[in-house]
Amino acid sequence: MFGPLICKPGSSRSNKTGPWRTESRPKFLKKNCIACNMCVVVCPESCIKGEGKNTYDFDPDYCKGCGNCAAICPKKDIEMVKEG
Amino acid sequence: MKELLEGSMAVAEIVKRCKPGVISAYPITPQTHIVEELAQIVADGSLNAQFVNVESEHSAASVVLGAVAAGVRAYTATSSQGLFYMAEVLYNIAGMRLPVIMTTAVRAISAPINIWNDHQDAVSLRDAGWVQFHAEDIQEAVDLHLIAYKLGEDKSIMLPVMVCMDGFILTHGVETVDMPTQEQVDKFLPPYKAPYKLDVENPMTLGPLVDPDYYMEARYALNETHKEALALIPKLAAEFTKTFGRAYNGLVEGYQLKDAEKVIIAMGSACGTIKEVIDELRIKGKKVGLLKITCLRPFPVNEIYNALKNVPKVAVIDRALSIGSFAPLYAEIKAVFFGKTKRPEVISSFVVGLGGRDITKDSIKEIFRLMNGKEKQAEFIDLKPELLKESYD
């Protein structure tokens, strides 16, 4: 008999971490974005995507609400807002 | 062909015939010369394997873990403190369901430092998830390695197997051994085909982190597989007998059990001495017998029950301790009979041969004599009371 033994790659896709968010979520203001890509780099869930200025946004299925994107944004164009 | 061989050399010879692709070992004390001989065999070009010398037993176990995870048959050997240093990895190997085969030259554990034979190292690791065989003599040690590979690599089993042989008494003893030919071994043991392995073309993770949603099922499956192994071992042993001619059932062996009134239960090389004492006592008309436990894990509960249910007096010989509690093998034998209607009236517990103290024929006769009295709890045989004192003042 065998139990859970082996993981195929990509299993983190099925592990939706959005429900970990308890207090706040990022709000992408899309006003002063310079497309520096820093928010994409620091996101621990790799759930921020965008192509060009003022297009970046996050995937709420995976965002844990850590606030790294808001903290690193050099143009203060991401702010954390209360969940709900 | 029958040859006069030292135990370590005999094991090296049979491992060579099993054709492992990777052998890894820590080469210094408490190692035996099993791997020294295998290193020579590999260096001579007689075995196409990679021999990896490592800086510790922890690394040796890790190397064979990795080798089997990559789909290669592997082998290692150790003893005593070395086995303990492997312990963390051994639990991983079993949990990852990798059929590593290892020889353990069973020896005592420090302190005091002692390199001689008892069963404390292997018995302490009985919960690691490995199948654990204990050999009585060099021939059985050789044969059990073949059964070990066949069992461990069975697609329904996939478990690591430890073949335990008494340190020095068997590893350094010389006996006549009927060494199977390469053709016989090839017929019995086909090349290893891993049902899962690390492969860059088909990536997967072995031994991942699992949260509480998954862990229990992995451990449950491991435990269930030991029960399945219990059913498979006698079948493989029968297949072994068909190929090689020597009869085992792989779990237990009874000696003069029919009509026996007093039976000793034991593991390892002491069984040879016990058989000799039984032969002598039988001539005098004493109805005595032996039940040898070959397979400690999985524990052959039904076989033990059926062999001993009608025996009035039973004594369990332990060559290890569970300090502060009952002797380990004794506790399990008692558990077999608890609550049963048919059971021995007396199940006594004796501790013998720790740290290489000789188990002589007199030791065994003393145990048979003490079985006449009340039930004994971890009674030490051949103890020297003159070495003991209540304080160091």
Gist?
Chain A has 84 residues and is α+β, with helices and mostly antiparallel strands. Chain A is 12% helix and 19% strand.
Features:
heterodimer; A: 84 residues; alpha+beta; two-stranded antiparallel ribbon; 2 helices; B: 393 residues; alpha/beta; Rossmann fold; seven-stranded mixed beta sheet; six-stranded mixed beta sheet
CATH top level assignment of the largest domain in chain B: Alpha Beta
CATH 4th-level superfamily of the largest domain in chain B: Thiamin diphosphate (ThDP)-binding fold, Pyr/PP domains
Low-confidence stretches of chain B: none
Counting H and I runs of at least 4 residues, what is the number of helices of chain B? Answer: 12
Oligomeric nature of the chains: heterodimer
How does this structure look, described?
The complex is a heterodimer of chains A (84) and B (393). Chain A is of the alpha+beta class. Chain A has a domain at 31-79: 2-Layer Sandwich (Alpha-Beta Plaits), CATH 3.30.70. Helix content of chain A is 12%, strand content 19%. Chain A has two helices and five strands. Chain A has helices at 38-42, 68-72; strands spanning 6-7, 24-28, 48-49, 57-58, 78-82. The mean pLDDT of chain A is 94. Chain B is α/β, with parallel strands linked by helices. Chain B folds into two domains: 2-244, Thiamin diphosphate (ThDP)-binding fold, Pyr/PP domains (Rossmann fold), CATH 3.40.50.970; 252-383, Rossmann fold (3-Layer(aba) Sandwich), CATH 3.40.50.920. Chain B has helices at 7-18, 34-43, 57-69, 80-95, 120-124, 138-152, 182-188, 215-244, 270-283, 301-308, 328-337, 361-370, and strands at 2-6, 22-25, 50-53, 74-78, 101-106, 131-134, 161-166, 174-178, 205-206, 252-255, 262-266, 288-293, 295-297, 313-318, 346-351, 379-380. In chain B, the strands form three sheets. Chain B has a seven-stranded mixed beta sheet, sandwiched between helices. In chain B, helix 4 links the parallel strand 4 and strand 5. Chain B is globular and about 65 Å long. Classes of the chains: A alpha+beta (84), B alpha/beta (393). At the A-B interface, strand 1 of A face strand 9 and helix 8 of B. Strand 1 (6-7) of chain A pairs antiparallel with strand 9 of chain B, so a sheet runs across the interface.
